[in-house]
Amino acid sequence: MICLGIESSCDETAVALVRDSRLMASLIATQADLHSIFGGVVPELASREHYRFIGPLFDRLIKDSGIHPEEIDAIAVTRGPGLPGSLLVGVAFAKALALALNKPLLGVNHLEAHLLAAGLEQTLIYPAIGALVSGGHTHLYHIASPWDFKELGTTLDDAAGEIFDKIGHSLGLPYPAGSHIDHLAKAGVPSMTALPWPYLDNDNLNFSFSGLKTAAIRYARESVKTQSDLSDFCATLNHVIAGTLAQKTLRAMKAYPVKSLWLAGGVAANSTLRHTFARLAEEHGLPFLAPSPQLCQDNAAMIAYNGFLLLEKGLYHDLDLEAIPRGKKIPHDLRFKDNIL
Ligand code: KG4
Ligand code: ZN
Question: Cis peptide leading into 127, omega within 30 of 0?
Fold first, then answer.
């Protein structure tokens, strides 16, 4: 089965083809340079750029892969969460293709797709605790199957990636700053006391990073004077964010006995976070699943693969599929073919 994936939830326009569990081709057009001028994504510009890129990108994907569009068995598209105008570009394009090719349409949850992306490279083991850590979201899930995600906790304010980006902006680093901070941290030594560990003195599975952001920006302004200070500060930031995420994830693992630990999202490319989670899994005798760093960033391979997993269970959407913006709950509105589930 060949599944096309379309991603346009934020500032990356992407298309990909997956044949069963194997990636055939994947293209990404990033707008990072454009939004970098403004220090963050400008929604109106993002949707215009998606509209400009999506057609030519699909044409190139078809040419590069050597298949005919008729050979595509289903069209999967990110239906949320994301920027409303950006999501609409991808969803409208997917609906047009589904109609023209007379193939099933699948609306994919972008956050779940990030976590499932590991399945393109490793065997997915259920049930799992999954941490989704990206520029817009920080979520902990119990995952029983590709269509059964239960949210256990989320951020009450800024997402972990947003913290990297905003602190990086205050340091004069380019947007998005996460990978730059990660790179600088490699030469630094983390301090155990310079920054507070945020929102751990409670008994829930939620996160709150805005206090850390304020403290970190103030600390950097007062104490980061040299390149070596900067490296130490970045190492400290990596350490505090990874440690906070790991502590709440450990609580979730204790509350919900599972068979594996998953990590995904753009911030899952962070070396300290990957190392911390790999160790956490190992200490508890669990396999650790995370997409390779290049599959952690926004891409359409994960959307195509998530679409394939739903399609092989006989699940699909109709053309009334709605795009769901960030902050709104994504409905469970998949339909079942032949009542397979
Ligand atoms: O998942 P993603 O590509 O887009 C969203 O859906 O948000 O995540 C982008 C986020 C940005 O905040 C970026 O700074 C962060 O991932 N990021 C990193 C690293 N690479 C990307 N954060 C920390 N360390 C990294 N190596
Ligand atoms: Zn993402």
Answer: yes
